[in-house]
Fold each of these.
Amino acid sequence: MHRARKRFGQNFLHDAGIIDRIVGSIAPKPGQHMVEIGPGRGALTEPLLEATGGELDVVELDRDLIPILKTQFFRHENLRIHEADALTFDFNTLVTDDRPLRLVGNLPYNISTPLMFHLLDYSDHIHDMHFMLQKEVVQRLCAAPGDNAYGRLGIMIQYYCEARYLFTVPPGAFAPPPKVESAIVRLNPRTTIEYPADDPDKLAVVVRTAFNQRRKTLRNNLKPLMSAEAIESLGLNPGERAENLSIRDFVMLANHLSRTESSA
Ligand SMILES: C[S@@+](CC[C@H](N)C(=O)[O-])C[C@H]1O[C@@H](n2cnc3c(N)ncnc32)[C@H](O)[C@@H]1O
């Protein structure tokens, strides 16, 4: 018998109603290229295989789960089991035709943020991603300017993806139950970025610096990068706080930084 491992963030789904609701929101169809990250003991794998007509890629790190999955799904010859760390896995190796990937995962909470950033590298090949995450993380991913949860994570992810909070999942849906509530998020990589940054790395720097001390103004937080006059010249109020700026505002600040640095 496989014992749930804390190290791998193993909280297995066992509530049939919640599993149905998750798969219903994903709405997988035959012929689509679904990929599940962290299949665990197969709670989502089974209905995903059923919906796609038997084709699925899964990426699982815990090597003790691999033989269990192989035994459980031995009839499914189009289930491809990859024993790998999703954080370093090259998702391009799964792209073998013109079908975009649809990613699904009840993710270990400790890897969720780095994993989402890793997956952004493949966004050209991804149609959508549905993840179960800690509720607070989903709130941050989907937050709008002015929300308490609005900050670095939401801005950087929403720059690349549309993010939607689908629903909350209580701890009792898992065995063992986690200490916190969870939620399902849908991320759709944008086909075109409305306000592109000249250099996305500069956008990351500006956002990080602007939120350095949340209660402080742009004038104060951005001092190491630009003057209050420069902020004003972009039509922004230096007395404003970062939490009230739109993604477009951050892009303007980042582009100002790239342009002044390249002309210096
Ligand atoms: C929260 S459990 C979910 C299991 C199953 N999908 C479910 O819903 O019951 C997370 C799963 O991700 C796996 N995992 C943890 N870290 C991983 C990583 N870096 N790469 C791939 N899988 C990982 C764990 O072993 C576990 O099976």
Amino acid sequence: EDGYRLWQRYDQLQNKDLLKQYRQSLNGVVVQGSSPTLTVVKEELEMGMEGLLGSSITIANQLPKKASLVVGTPASSPIIKELGLEQKLKEVGQEGYLLLSQKHKGKNHTVIAANSDKGVLYGTFHFLRLLQTQQNIQALNISSSPKTKLRILNHWDNLDRTVERGYAGFSIWDWHKLPDYIDQRYIDYARANASIGINGTVLTNVNANSLVLTPEYLQKVKALADVFRPYGIKVYLTARFSSPIELGKLKTADPLDPAVKAWWKNKVNEIYTYIPDFGGFTVKANSEGQPGPQNYNRSHADGANMLAEVLAPKGGIVMWRAFVYDNNVPDDRHKQAYTEFKPLDGTFQGNVMVQVKNGAIDFQPREPFHPLFGAMPKTPLMMEFQITQEYLGQGTHLAYLAPMFKETLTADTYAKGKGSTVAKVVDGSLDNHAISGMAGVANIGNDINWTSHPFGQANWYAFGRLAWDHELTSEGIADEWIKMTFSSAPSSQAAIRTMMMGSREAVVNYMTPMGLHHLMGWSHHYGPGPWIKDKPRADWTSVYYHRADEKGLGFDRTKTGSNALSQYAPEVQAQWGNPTTCPEEVLLWFHHVAWDAKTKSGRTLWDELCYRYSGGVDSVRAMQKTWNSLEGQIDKERHQQVKQYLAIQEKDARWWRDACLLYFQTFSKRPIPQELEKPQGTLEQFMKIEPKFAPGI
Ligand SMILES: CO[C@H]1[C@H](O)[C@@H](O)[C@H](O)O[C@@H]1C(=O)O
């Protein structure tokens, strides 16, 4: 193996019949026209087809006599124009594309056509994926366009190259060597992202450092933007709200102060001299100690609009985060974002998007959808998912996240009656928004395989695919990724898919089953810490979230408790407000349930909890068994890697199960059912375990 490889492996296909078919239909490749994007299209076609087909190809400017691959836009390619695809192309928009088997002058050609070079690029990657996943290309009739306009990675990367909540080494942005040294990884990063339709990247941590806005750093940012541009990827930065004070030496960062606004206007103009297509800012304000407009008694809208106004003439946007909790500890942190943002609906400028995490607390293994979705019809709401597994085992646990992303996207907000899914809020179709977006907090770093756990790559891949088309299935995305990533082992496809599909639920079960949440260890968030209390803020403890007592377990968020449920539509309230109709997956999120209450299995809550925790451990063991059975079918190196990670996961799953059950047992005072494995160790022992070298704190 030479260095790293992502899913674009392009190894020669082994299926002889298929190879023959491909070679017969792809005698030549014609790309007419020239642009930086068409240049990378040609490079990718050469690399991909030569690798997959095992024969060299030349890219021609004229149509050869035999069946060929014809690539381009009607504007740049006379052959594409001759094909008369105007009507079909109208439907795919600026980023979409067509993949067609098309007769032209008696020959059967394969066509990648689009309205823009960027669309051609996306079509090219789709076409290469068809070959890589060994699809029949004889009668292609594919048209595809993205459902979400902005598909963007958020890097929580600091300028010293540490990555907040990053578990795959240090930041890939080598600020020290930029702008003079362009690491090959930047190019491969762009290729990988473009291959899944990602069209934007926020380079820096939301806990922002204003230094990135200085000329010295803007030159470095420009160098990255220049690399990414041909791949259709725009660069964005995080804007520290107090930058006018830190960099501009102003006395205030009050968004309504004319000097502050003038400072930002100059700064934005300056940025555009370096990066003419700069995307805009992501802002975390008045949350976890970050400065913001509330420091000056102004609202989030005042802050966002001030930046939006200076960005608008340049075509830039503001992604203002709704992950806010600050000031006084609320009676229920679940409610804070909604309380602060809902009243601001309709007051944001047209180029502001409010970026909302999938759930109201913080990227837990399972959260009900965030109540802001559906509650701010006049504001485009952007989805923020976390690809990095801060709360799901970080760099060592296998957890395929597509089912988690889909769970939120398919949830029904009932905002405009049945069928008002979160996906429709986010893609803008429910409320007819001109802009829409999905952000994923990246899980990559400078580890050789980019993501620490080899299966972490699947989560990056799945995020991009779902941002393009949220209707894709988790299984389908897994299949694509497996075929591309473990191309040498077609027979193991089903087994790997089964592992992936059950993996996130396994994590939920051994960490936080039945709606439990935020039981993770203090600050590092890796192992169990349900006992955590007495911290500077009540909502930084675990006891705040699980509320275990002699009577039972869970956070009462109904009318008799915090009433966070009132933030949802009446239909949702009706279902979740009643413990007998509330799905067990989120039961303890909304209800304080008696230890002896009957659950759907017929068991008491306590027994059911014991079964779920044990089931989580069993699922990991099942994954181990499956993986062991694949030995010999997968290259040694990756087989060994995953095998070792699964052993860690199994050990950690037991740690979670035993620590949580022993702790909750001090309240339930009931025995763990006979037939289940007994905890190995005492609660006191578990409470002493502190990972001293947890990464990314
Ligand atoms: C970037 O800060 C993070 C913080 O590390 C993390 O623990 C929490 O999940 O969320 C914060 C946020 O999303 O702003």
